[in-house]
Design goal:
Helices cover 74% and strands 1% of the residues. The chain is mostly helical. The protein has a domain at 2-143 and 214-408. The chain has a two-stranded antiparallel ribbon. The N and C termini lie far apart (59 Å). Residues 20-437 form the DUF112 domain. This is Tripartite tricarboxylate transporter permease.
Length: 503
């Protein structure tokens, strides 16, 4: 009841005209920047930090929250229309959203994403209000073996469902894990795969890898096939969801927050793991197996709802524990420190107006995001009518700008080109790109958690399975790996197959 009363006070702060204005500015800026490949919400918040020096802290954080949610929607827009994610949380949207766009259903995919973001964000923020103390306690109790088990689950789940071959999926994952090894070993200080370059000692930024594999790789692949495939415009389609689409999307919309919120709240979480797991879950539960890989709308609705709920979960760890679980949360933590505010258990007591105003502004931002972006779905979809040579030339330009902006080093452009050529080769030989990206994102973190667990157990492998949570996760991993063989042995499956043969 105290939380509800405090939330009402927060709405009193968030619904002032000036704060509504800052929320709208944040949503619009976040969407616009998220649309540009490689320039995600984390970079947007970082670039705007100096601009907010003169702002009231509450107004600044309301705008940052709008940028966060708007950036996630903008990232899914380019994922769906151009197969080039604006940020890492939007990677999964490309899997089914882009085939939908190519088949003339780009507006439907964008509408499913927009409504999914709204529902996931509203449910996630409600959970933030109600469950923040409980989730914070659970997050504190999770140890290194549990983190490592979760990451292994993400690796196996993604490589097992993408592409026609598990071998190709694991090969792609190996590429990503190798790229993630580049840099300095955080525990020993040893240089790995740096080739004597000091610039590479910090590793390859995940933005450069994601943009290289997706944006540059896709642009080069399209350029290589323009002569044979032509460059005609792709049809846009109707700008709304019909009853059939709604029937297929409402369950994924509601399942998304169940997966996304807990993963967003735990340290070392974020939106990458839950969106991949949501994609896997929806594919398993779907009754339209033949559409997956060709444009299944559930593959857009579920992960996008999951990503938005994960963003709300991210704020749990940041506000209650001072632990950022994503790049955006890390930048926002720096912004708190800039104003002399330290997030943690006492933040709700010391800065109630700021915290509850920020949480209330999330509801306002969700409504603004839906109202502003849903009517723009057909407008965004018309990007597909731009001649492809000009369109992909623009993508390469913005991709290069985004990569250069990471550290301002010309070497990053060379690395971007190399990774883009790797992305081209992966498309040529049928290797899915997603396992490589998740390998880069989670590989270093998985290595650190594994080594911590082994250090605690004095090198014994039992240290990786010394908790019920880790054992449960590994059981799920074993089930995923064995499922193709188990499915063949199921009597019901055989009966269905025989019935289909008779028909």
């Amino acid at each position: 009841m105290d939380s509800l009363t405090s939330l009402m006070d927060g709405f009193g702060t968030a619904l002032t005209p000036i704060n509504i204005l800052w929320a709208a500015v944040g949503v619009l800026l976040g969407t616009a920047i998220g649309v540009l490949p490689g320039i995600g919400p984390a970079m947007a918040v970082a670039l705007l930090l100096p601009v907010t020096y003169g702002l009231d802290p509450t107004a600044a954080f309301i705008m940052f929250a709008g940028i966060y949610y708007g950036g996630m929607f903008g990232g899914s827009t380019t994922s769906i229309l151009l197969n080039t994610p604006g940020e890492s949380a939007a990677v999964v949207a490309a899997m089914e959203g882009n085939p939908m766009a190519k088949s003339g259903r780009g507006s439907q995919a964008l509408a499913a994403a927009a409504v999914g973001h709204f529902i996931g964000g509203i449910i996630g923020t409600c959970l933030l209000v109600a469950l923040a103390p409980v989730v914070a306690d659970l997050a504190v109790d999770i140890g290194a073996p549990d983190y490592f088990a979760i990451m292994v689950l993400a690796f196996i789940a993604v490589t097992s469902v993408l592409g026609k071959s598990r071998i190709r999926g694991f090969a792609s994952l190996l590429i990503g894990l190798t790229l993630g090894l580049v840099g300095m070993d955080q525990m020993t200080g040893q240089q790995r795969l740096t080739f004597g370059s000091l610039h590479l000692s910090d590793g390859i930024d995940v933005i450069i890898v994601a943009v290289g594999l997706f944006a540059i790789g896709e642009a080069l692949w399209v350029a290589a096939h323009l002569k044979s495939g032509g460059d005609g415009a792709i049809p846009v389609g109707r700008p709304w969801l019909d009853k059939k689409d709604l029937k297929r999307t409402w369950k994924p919309w509601l399942r998304g927050p169940v997966i996304g919120f807990p993963f967003g709240a735990i340290p070392a979480g974020g939106a990458e793991i839950p969106t991949f797991l949501s994609y896997v879950t929806e594919k398993r539960l779907s009754k339209h197996k033949d559409e997956w890989g060709k444009g299944a709308i559930e593959g857009v609705a579920g992960p996008e709802s999951t990503a938005s709920a994960s963003a709300a979960g991210t704020l749990v760890s940041m506000l209650t524990l001072g632990l950022p679980t994503t790049a955006v949360a890390a930048v926002m933590l720096a912004a708190f420190q800039q104003y002399g505010i330290q997030p943690g258990p006492l933040l709700f007591e010391r800065e109630p107006d700021l915290v509850w105003g920020l949480i209330a502004s999330l509801f306002v931002g969700m409504v603004l995001l839906l109202v502003l972006n849903l009517p723009l779905a057909p407008v965004w979809a018309k990007l597909l009518r731009i001649p492809r040579p000009y369109l992909y030339a623009g993508i390469m330009f913005f991709a290069a700008v985004g990569a250069y902006a990471v550290s301002g080093e010309a070497l990053d452009l060379f690395i971007l080109l190399i990774i883009g050529l790797i992305g081209l080769a992966m498309r040529r030989y049928g290797l899915p790109v997603l396992p490589a990206v998740i390998g880069v994102i989670l590989g270093p973190a998985a290595e650190n958690q594994m080594r911590r667990a082994l250090q605690i157990s004095d090198g014994s492998l039992t240290g990786l399975v010394n908790s019920p949570f880790a054992v449960t996760v590994y059981a799920i991993v074993a089930l995923i790996l064995a499922w193709p063989w188990v499915r063949k042995l199921l009597p019901a499956r055989r009966t269905e197959e025989r019935a289909e043969e008779r028909v």
